């Protein structure tokens, strides 16, 4: 009995001197059978659901582009609510557009929120590229548009051919990342936008 008391006293003395004790169970520990996140591991991107993007590409080819999308609630692409517009200058065909703001965040300078904007642009590019119709191609915009830091151009086969001969041409689909400097009291911001646009007469 005396030897047992001595052993117990020794253990208590070690604990009091800073001997580590087992940590408490984590409150958010994974349940049996669930994957455990490991520090430094890269999570796999989620699979791409092309349902909405395929709908937008189909509407692009309508006689009046995107007319079917004006019925019912606004379409959402890449988790962004999109809007339809029409522009017409004198002597030129009307251009119908579908614009989606994929990412927007105030940024007093280019460094602020730049990584988040780049991540949003990369994920949008991954999804649009995965959902391109069979006869469409993609290319990086050479010397991105003056108002963009980075842009991807998506074109159908006939669009790419027409781009080389037409006197006027609008990019059919453009994914763009840009830092927009504030003006007239508005805050500067990073924006990632996806734009579909087509001349209303289909030319």
Q: How confident is the prediction overall: mean pLDDT?
A: 77
| Structural domain tally | 1
Number of strands: 7
| Helicity level | 10-25%
Radius of gyration, CA atoms, in whole angstroms: 28 Å
The assigned structural class equals alpha+beta
**Percentage of residues in DSSP E strands:** 25-35%
Query: Count the helices. How many?
Result: 4
Largest sheet: 7 strands, antiparallel
* Strand order of the biggest β-sheet: 1-2-3-7-6-5-4
Low-confidence stretches: 1-41
**Large-scale geometry:** globular
Q: Determine the N-to-C terminus distance.
A: 99 Å
Element pattern in H and E: HHEEEHEEHEE
Per-chain topology:
Layout: H1 2-16, H2 51-60, E1 76-77, E2 80-87, E3 95-106, H3 114-130, E4 136-140, E5 150-156, H4 157-162, E6 173-180, E7 189-199
Antiparallel strand pairs: 1-2, 2-3, 3-7, 4-5, 5-6, 6-7
Describe what you observe in this structure.
There is one protein chain. The protein has one domain (51-199). By secondary structure, it is α+β, with helices and mostly antiparallel strands. Helices cover 24% and strands 26% of the residues. It contains four helices and seven strands. Strands 1-2-3-7-6-5-4 form a seven-stranded antiparallel β-sheet. The chain has helices spanning 2-16, 51-60, 114-130, 157-162, and strands spanning 76-77, 80-87, 95-106, 136-140, 150-156, 173-180, 189-199.
Describe what is shown at a glance.
Helices cover 24% and strands 26% of the residues. By secondary structure, it is of the alpha+beta class. The protein has a 7-stranded antiparallel β-sheet.
